[in-house]
Amino acid sequence: DLALYRAKTGGKGQLSLFEPGLEIAVRTRRDLEADLKLAIAAGELELHYQPLVGLGDGRVHSFEALLRWNRRQRGFVSPADFVPVAEAAGLITTIGRWVLLQACSEAARWPSDISVAVNISPTQFRNSDLVDDVKAALVTSGLDPARLEVEITESVFFEMNAVTIANLRELRALGIRIALDDFGTGYSSLSYLIRFPVDKIKIDRSFIKDMGHRHECLAVIETILALARKLSITVTAEGVETVEQALLLQRSRCDDIQGFLFSPARPSAEIDRLVETLPHKFRSLLNPEEPVA
Ligand code: C2E
Ligand code: MG
Ligand code: MG
Ligand code: MG
């Protein structure tokens, strides 16, 4: 291809704007951004909910809200692909506001002992409007703040400033729980856990994936669990796919597991069915002696 040839040879090895591949990538991203801007109004965004299953008794106490985008004429787009685009394009605050209201409104219709966990992006967390958005979602939906948990990543702690500290304090003062998501993958510093108390740690899937065949992974998981117990922090393991992983985590006294072994994220209409059936699935897979009450 002539344009590409010129760009590569004439540009002293630099990437040139004339490179067709790059041009397509830029256009694709611009299209994605434009479609994302219209997605909320077009009703293309949805939340699905993945259960957290208690390793003590197999009961479900909460669900994590996960964004799903059915992009017009193109089908399903992964949040791993569009959430970063939304961040970069300054759309995440608007989308995040919709997520909060939608998650609280749907959870308000669930059994009253079931909570919902909402992912909050670092950009949202740095914004001084966050607490107002959360309050508005709670008031509009009527959801008890004790049934809302927010998931933030370690990068939030890395960039702690007056606004983020105030957000963290105010959310906790409202009775909302804070979970540290993808724990172990960021700029993990144990000092964060002392300076900024959290209610829950979610151990990243990368550790769970290899825990059965890499003793280093199991060692890290067991150490996180021992530390969390001393600090009275609850621990969830992410991405549990096998019975072997679940049994190892149960033996290490992890509190909850989340993963395809029990269920992927499902629409809100399926919450009652999942709450009802998962304790039975738990008993048959992990075989504890006690029957489900
Ligand atoms: P996350 O918060 O760590 O969510 C867990 C991800 O792991 C979800 O991917 C979930 O579907 C996936 N997962 C759960 N169990 C398993 C398993 O057993 N095996 C494997 N391979 N994967 C599993 P999903 O839904 O594609 O979301 C990806 C990421 O996108 C999330 O990671 C979160 O960082 C972000 N995200 C999703 N929804 C939102 C949202 O409403 N707001 C923001 N800011 N970010 C969101
Ligand atoms: Mg999460
Ligand atoms: Mg996570
Ligand atoms: Mg993760």
TrEMBL record:
Q: Which domain of life is it from?
A: Bacteria
EAL domain residues: 29-279
The protein, known as: Diguanylate cyclase
Species annotation: Methylobacterium iners
Question: Which portion of the complete protein is shown here?
Answer: 510 to 802 of 808
